Amino acid sequence: MSFFSRLETRARQIDSLLCVGLDPHSSDLAEDTAGAARDFCLRMVEATADVAAAYKPNAAFFEVLGPAGCAALQEVIAAVPQDIPMILDAKRGDIASTADAYARSAFYTYGAAAVTVNPYLGYDSLQPFLEDPERGVFLLCKTSNPGAGDLQDLWVSGEGVEPASMPLFQHVARLAQTWNQADNLGLVVGATQPESLRLVRLVAPDLWILAPGVGAQGGDLSAALRHGLRPDGLGMLLPVSRGISRSRNMRQAAFDLRQAVNVQRQALAAHLHPPSAHSDQGAG
Amino acid sequence: MSFFSRLETRARQIDSLLCVGLDPHSSDLAEDTAGAARDFCLRMVEATADVAAAYKPNAAFFEVLGPAGCAALQEVIAAVPQDIPMILDAKRGDIASTADAYARSAFYTYGAAAVTVNPYLGYDSLQPFLEDPERGVFLLCKTSNPGAGDLQDLWVSGEGVEPASMPLFQHVARLAQTWNQADNLGLVVGATQPESLRLVRLVAPDLWILAPGVGAQGGDLSAALRHGLRPDGLGMLLPVSRGISRSRNMRQAAFDLRQAVNVQRQALAAHLHPPSAHSDQGAG
Lengths: 284, 284
Known about the structure:
Largest interface: A-B, 63 and 63 residues
Low-confidence stretches of chain A: 277-284
Largest sheet of chain A: 8 strands, parallel
CATH class of chain A: Alpha Beta
CATH architecture of chain A: Alpha-Beta Barrel
Helix content of chain A: 40-55%
Oligomer: homodimer
Number of helices of chain A: 11
CATH superfamily of chain A: Aldolase class I
């Protein structure tokens, strides 16, 4: 079963596009130890397992805690129920035997089902991550930080850029659409930029998009879903971390977020579903 | 003392541009364990400490060994003499508090003096790595793998690309030249592409370049040095790993490599040194 088949099964089953980010920031921990990081994540998993379409542990917050932090990451991934995909947010990118080692690390040393990867080194840097048909990759495409434009927004032309010049991030999306031969390659596009989501969807109609940045604001969420969802009402995964971990009732916060997303999905369903197709696939 | 001052002091002191790559590939280890990886690296360090301008452990080969591998990386870094800079080849790239955690991990959890970083997320993704004036960054610019052209060779135009369109990797080099405000930012450019080195040097005359790919071939080496060295005969760091680790006599192999580089540097010295300047700085 391909990674995205597995993700779609899970998303339909619990009617959720919510991806729970497991980010044990030192500022959120009672003490700056690997044990505290592990317990923080395990509490989040316990509170949200009924509405999490996926989990996304952030490798950096474990790495900074040293070998014990790496062991905590292994424990957290092992503790998540088998039917919930684990996306290791590691943003790796290297070549040849090094890329191969990073892929083996993410998928087999740590047990992740998918991993975020950087596109700067090109196709062969992704290949080791795409070799296992049951594992997935989310390729960085458009981020929402201040410096994202330094490279991602530049207009590019040259070999393989067709039919005309386009922003670099859109070219990355187009490459990803062609590179996705085994239903195991998606994209990372910030949810705060509906116009970027629109440009990405023009060239990558099929791919799943991991879209960080959705807050509690209905406006942003609605625009993001309008431009990012596929006609089947799926194709977007919305990571939320502090919006859950910092609430008094994590379980309730996660349920509320799923509901907020589904209300918008239902409002959009008429536009997303061309009357002639997908009529048997509910958007929520 | 800035990272590159420290590196220059070391390079002049031992008259070497050699960077010894510590890459414990599983295929090179007697057994696939963290202890074997650590011992493999410690043997390399012991054999080469007299001619290594720097060491470059590759994070992937430690990570894939799990928590014990991370502990081995700590031990290897701690075992290297204090006056030899350690460059952690990790190719990280993330934003905000995550980038901050990666920087703290590389510099303080693991004790590296410098780290390789990916440019795709833009300036603020580098900032946490540049904050400590004694630590350094090598920014990925032009790699030598088959897919490097997928993004790096595209022609870019747009805000900040001046005076005219240029390949993306050259724009990255130009950005790095302007971002290097504290003598702590260099570049990674494959040594197998002399023309890329030339284009990089046009826009980044001052920066240190970590240039992987130099083999035993004098031809490649000469062309790489001709286009990459600064007028002071420094500014390039040449990583070699298997060329040392797989030789019967690692110490001799490292001495031979230093010598091969220095013969070429001396042959180039007349061209590199404009008669009016730097006349007191020998190229070796």
